[in-house]
Amino acid sequence: MSNFEQNVGNPSLISDRMAANNTILCIHRDPDQLRSLQENGYELLTATNGHDGLRVFATQPVDAIVLDYHLGLLDGACVANEIKRVRPTIPIVMLTDNLELPDGALKSVDALVTKSDGAHFLWAAVHFVLNVKPAQSREAKHKSQTKPSPDAKDAPFSAREWRNVRAGTVQF
Description:
alpha/beta
Protein backbone atom coordinates (compact mmCIF):
# COMPACT_ATOMS: atom_id res chain seq x y z
CA MET A 1 0.00 0.00 0.00
CA SER A 2 1.43 3.41 -0.98
CA ASN A 3 1.86 6.34 1.38
CA PHE A 4 -0.94 8.07 -0.50
CA GLU A 5 -3.36 5.19 0.07
CA GLN A 6 -2.39 4.99 3.74
CA ASN A 7 -2.93 8.72 4.24
CA VAL A 8 -6.30 8.72 2.50
CA GLY A 9 -7.57 6.30 5.10
CA ASN A 10 -6.13 8.29 7.99
CA PRO A 11 -7.12 11.98 7.93
CA SER A 12 -5.32 12.74 11.20
CA LEU A 13 -1.99 11.89 9.54
CA ILE A 14 -2.76 14.30 6.75
CA SER A 15 -3.81 17.22 8.92
CA ASP A 16 -0.87 16.72 11.31
CA ARG A 17 1.66 16.98 8.46
CA MET A 18 -0.13 19.43 6.17
CA ALA A 19 2.00 22.44 5.33
CA ALA A 20 0.42 25.68 6.45
CA ASN A 21 -0.40 28.41 3.97
CA ASN A 22 0.18 26.51 0.73
CA THR A 23 -1.52 28.33 -2.12
CA ILE A 24 -3.54 26.23 -4.55
CA LEU A 25 -4.71 27.50 -7.92
CA CYS A 26 -8.09 25.91 -8.60
CA ILE A 27 -9.04 26.00 -12.27
CA HIS A 28 -12.56 24.63 -12.20
CA ARG A 29 -15.95 25.38 -13.73
CA ASP A 30 -17.39 25.69 -10.21
CA PRO A 31 -14.56 26.55 -7.78
CA ASP A 32 -17.01 26.65 -4.85
CA GLN A 33 -16.99 22.84 -5.03
CA LEU A 34 -13.36 22.97 -3.86
CA ARG A 35 -13.90 25.02 -0.69
CA SER A 36 -13.05 21.97 1.42
CA LEU A 37 -9.40 22.65 0.54
CA GLN A 38 -9.72 26.12 2.04
CA GLU A 39 -11.49 24.72 5.10
CA ASN A 40 -8.46 22.47 5.61
CA GLY A 41 -5.89 25.25 5.61
CA TYR A 42 -5.03 25.90 1.98
CA GLU A 43 -5.15 29.35 0.43
CA LEU A 44 -7.13 29.27 -2.83
CA LEU A 45 -6.85 31.27 -6.02
CA THR A 46 -9.60 30.45 -8.49
CA ALA A 47 -10.34 30.61 -12.19
CA THR A 48 -13.33 29.19 -14.05
CA ASN A 49 -11.67 28.50 -17.40
CA GLY A 50 -8.28 27.57 -18.82
CA HIS A 51 -7.40 31.01 -20.19
CA ASP A 52 -8.08 32.74 -16.87
CA GLY A 53 -6.28 29.96 -15.02
CA LEU A 54 -3.14 30.41 -17.12
CA ARG A 55 -3.32 34.17 -16.56
CA VAL A 56 -3.53 33.69 -12.77
CA PHE A 57 -0.72 31.14 -12.91
CA ALA A 58 1.49 33.63 -14.78
CA THR A 59 0.87 36.45 -12.29
CA GLN A 60 0.52 34.79 -8.87
CA PRO A 61 2.84 32.45 -6.94
CA VAL A 62 1.19 29.08 -6.33
CA ASP A 63 2.34 25.82 -4.74
CA ALA A 64 0.05 23.45 -6.65
CA ILE A 65 -2.79 23.32 -9.17
CA VAL A 66 -6.17 21.58 -8.95
CA LEU A 67 -7.41 21.40 -12.50
CA ASP A 68 -10.80 20.35 -13.84
CA TYR A 69 -10.42 18.35 -17.05
CA HIS A 70 -13.69 19.57 -18.59
CA LEU A 71 -13.13 23.31 -18.95
CA GLY A 72 -14.67 23.95 -22.34
CA LEU A 73 -12.62 25.16 -25.31
CA LEU A 74 -9.26 24.71 -23.59
CA ASP A 75 -9.41 21.37 -21.77
CA GLY A 76 -7.47 20.50 -18.64
CA ALA A 77 -4.86 18.46 -20.52
CA CYS A 78 -3.87 21.47 -22.64
CA VAL A 79 -3.73 23.70 -19.57
CA ALA A 80 -1.63 21.13 -17.67
CA ASN A 81 0.79 20.79 -20.58
CA GLU A 82 1.29 24.56 -20.76
CA ILE A 83 1.78 24.85 -16.99
CA LYS A 84 4.39 22.06 -16.98
CA ARG A 85 6.16 23.64 -19.98
CA VAL A 86 6.61 26.85 -17.97
CA ARG A 87 7.19 25.28 -14.54
CA PRO A 88 7.83 21.51 -14.75
CA THR A 89 8.00 20.91 -10.99
CA ILE A 90 4.61 22.37 -10.04
CA PRO A 91 2.29 19.59 -8.83
CA ILE A 92 -0.99 19.24 -10.72
CA VAL A 93 -4.02 17.29 -9.50
CA MET A 94 -6.50 16.62 -12.31
CA LEU A 95 -10.14 16.46 -11.30
CA THR A 96 -12.50 14.70 -13.71
CA ASP A 97 -16.04 13.35 -13.93
CA ASN A 98 -14.84 9.87 -14.90
CA LEU A 99 -11.68 7.94 -15.70
CA GLU A 100 -12.30 7.75 -19.45
CA LEU A 101 -9.93 10.36 -20.86
CA PRO A 102 -8.19 10.58 -24.24
CA ASP A 103 -4.70 9.12 -24.63
CA GLY A 104 -2.07 11.53 -23.37
CA ALA A 105 -4.49 13.54 -21.24
CA LEU A 106 -2.55 12.72 -18.08
CA LYS A 107 1.03 13.13 -19.31
CA SER A 108 1.50 16.41 -17.38
CA VAL A 109 -0.52 15.45 -14.30
CA ASP A 110 0.80 14.25 -10.93
CA ALA A 111 -2.47 12.84 -9.54
CA LEU A 112 -5.95 12.05 -10.82
CA VAL A 113 -9.12 12.31 -8.73
CA THR A 114 -12.66 11.67 -9.92
CA LYS A 115 -15.38 13.91 -8.55
CA SER A 116 -17.17 10.84 -7.19
CA ASP A 117 -14.11 10.14 -4.96
CA GLY A 118 -15.22 13.03 -2.77
CA ALA A 119 -13.66 16.07 -1.13
CA HIS A 120 -11.57 14.07 1.34
CA PHE A 121 -9.82 12.17 -1.45
CA LEU A 122 -9.10 15.42 -3.31
CA TRP A 123 -7.68 16.91 -0.12
CA ALA A 124 -5.50 13.80 0.37
CA ALA A 125 -4.26 13.98 -3.24
CA VAL A 126 -3.29 17.63 -2.84
CA HIS A 127 -1.47 16.82 0.40
CA PHE A 128 0.31 13.92 -1.30
CA VAL A 129 1.64 15.94 -4.26
CA LEU A 130 2.71 18.81 -2.00
CA ASN A 131 4.33 16.85 0.83
CA VAL A 132 4.78 13.10 0.38
CA LYS A 133 5.82 12.90 -3.28
CA PRO A 134 8.53 15.63 -3.02
CA ALA A 135 9.94 13.96 0.10
CA GLN A 136 10.10 10.61 -1.72
CA SER A 137 11.87 12.27 -4.66
CA ARG A 138 14.43 13.92 -2.36
CA GLU A 139 15.03 10.61 -0.59
CA ALA A 140 15.49 8.72 -3.87
CA LYS A 141 17.85 11.41 -5.18
CA HIS A 142 19.88 11.27 -1.97
CA LYS A 143 20.14 7.46 -2.18
CA SER A 144 21.29 7.60 -5.80
CA GLN A 145 23.99 10.15 -4.95
CA THR A 146 25.34 8.16 -2.02
CA LYS A 147 28.02 5.67 -3.05
CA PRO A 148 28.45 2.71 -0.71
CA SER A 149 31.92 1.89 0.48
CA PRO A 150 33.40 -1.45 -0.64
CA ASP A 151 32.92 -2.79 2.89
CA ALA A 152 29.26 -1.74 3.14
CA LYS A 153 26.97 -4.43 4.53
CA ASP A 154 24.57 -4.15 1.61
CA ALA A 155 27.36 -4.66 -0.96
CA PRO A 156 27.21 -8.06 -2.64
CA PHE A 157 30.65 -9.04 -1.26
CA SER A 158 33.02 -7.50 1.26
CA ALA A 159 36.45 -6.24 0.17
CA ARG A 160 38.05 -9.36 1.69
CA GLU A 161 35.64 -11.63 -0.22
CA TRP A 162 36.45 -9.80 -3.48
CA ARG A 163 40.18 -10.32 -2.86
CA ASN A 164 39.51 -14.04 -2.34
CA VAL A 165 37.42 -14.19 -5.55
CA ARG A 166 40.21 -12.50 -7.55
CA ALA A 167 42.85 -14.75 -5.97
CA GLY A 168 40.75 -17.85 -6.67
CA THR A 169 40.68 -18.84 -2.99
CA VAL A 170 37.02 -18.17 -2.30
CA GLN A 171 35.22 -20.92 -0.42
CA PHE A 172 31.45 -21.38 -0.23
